[in-house]
Design goal:
The protein is mainly beta. It has one domain: OB fold (Dihydrolipoamide Acetyltransferase, E2P) (Beta Barrel). Strand 6 and strand 7 form a beta hairpin.
Length: 108
């Protein structure tokens, strides 16, 4: 699967306040009794974020290594994403997008 770099530098990214959750691991469409890890063996969590544009807001969920997410992401606080990529895929005859980032940092 190809990943497409995403530049959100001109957009405002806001934490939703939803607690990051571990990403379940799947093999051949079957959920495993493990959590997903990246190629460095780090556990991944899913973080919910709002992306604000001139056209409105959209919620996206981004997979990030658990060690690279601030412990306390205050609801509606601004954040910065590093290494954000989008990976399109087909699921049951529909196209979807999975997002992944290397770091989430609280913006001061």
């Amino acid at each position: 699967m190809r990943s497409i770099p995403v530049d959100v530098s001109g957009l405002k990214v806001i934490a939703t306040g939803v607690v990051p959750v571990a990403v379940n691991k799947y093999e051949n469409g079957v959920r495993q009794e493990a959590t997903e890890t990246d190629d460095k063996g780090r556990a991944l969590v899913r973080v919910s974020l709002f992306i604000l544009t001139d056209e409105g807001a959209e919620e996206i969920r981004v997979k990030v290594p658990a060690t690279n997410v601030p412990k306390e992401l205050a609801p509606l606080s601004a954040v910065t994403l590093s290494g954000l990529v989008a990976a399109p895929y087909v699921n049951n005859n529909r196209v979807a997008v999975s997002y992944r980032a290397e770091h989430i940092t609280a913006t001061k």
